[in-house]
Amino acid sequence: MRPVHACLVALMIGAVGCQTGSTTGSSDRARAFAALPEATRKVLDEGRLSEGMSSNVVAIAWGLPSKVLSGIPPYSDERWSYYGSYTERRHIWTHTPQGNGYDRVDSNIMPISHPYVRAVVSFWKGEVVEWEKFEPPANP
Questions:
Q1: Are the C-beta atoms of residues 80 and 120 closer than 8 Å to each other?
Q2: What would the pLDDT profile of 27-57 be if each residue is shown by its tens digit?
Q3: Distance of alpha carbon 71 from alpha carbon 73, whole angstroms
Q4: Would you say residue 39 lies in a domain?
Q5: 11, 24 Cβ separation under 8 angstroms
Q6: d(CA 66, CA 33)
Q7: Is residue 110 part of a domain?
């Protein structure tokens, strides 16, 4: 293993071990990010990935995935999914009996959270072969 990859793996092991809410994991990821070549940091700063990036670099830049699927040939051997959520504002109507034969009708705007897949990264032998980011659906 090349020295740079060994350093990244060591830093990622530290970051993975600190996912309990402490700031140590964040500072380890920041140090690992700073150790990357400038061209790679520039691509990542733009919110993009590039073909051939290692899974370690993706984990440093985007964090650990929400879900990992393995063994999906012929185009990839591993697929990472990152989930997000968006909030929809929905009118909720309530009917309250008044005891006089009439109901009081009220309308409230209720925020409702929905999950969605915000990004998918496909790997072949530990390197990015394709990736895609998705925008949350627009509020109706």
A1: yes
A2: 788 888 889 999 999 999 998 999 999 999 9
A3: 6
A4: no
A5: no
A6: 20
A7: yes
